[in-house]
Every structure is written in structure tokens, then in C-alpha cells.
Amino acid sequence: MKKVIVLGLSLFLFFSFAIGSAFAQSKLEKTAEDLIGIKYKWAGTTKSGFDCSGFTSYVFDQLGFNLPHSSKAQSQEGDKVAKSELRAGDLVFFDTGGSGISHVGIYLGDGVFIHSSTDDGVIKSKLSESYYAKRYITASRILDDKSYDRLTAESK
Prior knowledge:
two-stranded antiparallel ribbon; 6 helices; globular; 37% helix; hydrolase; alpha+beta; endopeptidase fold (from Nostoc punctiforme); signal
């Protein structure tokens, strides 16, 4: 009987911790990930459809930051950051058309970024995917350390 109670308590604690961890999201992640699945719309800046820079400017606006609606213009904002130094909230930029910066997404961590793709709308992708790895140009840090800490702390 004692083993059953201990086992039951252990399972309860394990699943309580696992479930709690799975649902703990930062404000940055929640704001961006709540938009997954919204379709791509050229020049789109609302939940009815986003282009890439419309998506990033919408997310940052929800977080209290104003960004221009152009991937090239957004690349001029903030401070440049090395790919090896990326942290959640950094903007990542790509040359998808062969003539300079033409696509932007928001880095989430662990090599993953979220963006509005022409074919799939708002999705997560990996920087290591062949398509993006070949087209990566630069990154910019929009969030200062204080804003980063505030927006990336897990929600309680």
C-alpha cells in the first residue's frame, strides 16, 4: 500500500511539473505564437493576414515597440547582433529574392524563429533549414536588457 501511495504521489508531482512547464510561456512567445496559422497577405499588418514585416511590426507593437513596416527598414533598427549571440526577441533577416534583405522573422531561441511565410502564413522554422541557412543575412536586437528580461520571463 505504501509503494502505491509513493508511486501515485511521484506520478502526480511529475505530471504536475511537466504540465506546468509545458504551458509556461513568456509574453513574447505567447504574443507571437498566438498568431500561428494566420495566412500570408501581401502588405498585411492585421490578424486578417500578415506579410513578414507586418507580422514582426504587429508583434512588437503588442509588446509596446514601434517598428517600420519593411524588412529592410527593420534591419536598420536596434543593434546588430552576431548569429552566435542570438537571443529571443532578436529580428533575423534573409535575402529571399537575391537583391538584399527581403524577409524578417523573430528569433525564439534554440535555433527557431517565427515568421509569416508566403506559402504557409505564420509558422515556426529553424535557422538551420537549408532554405533559410543559405539566405540568412543578419540580425538586430530591438529589446534592451530590461525589456528582454520583462518580456521573456516565464508567465506565472
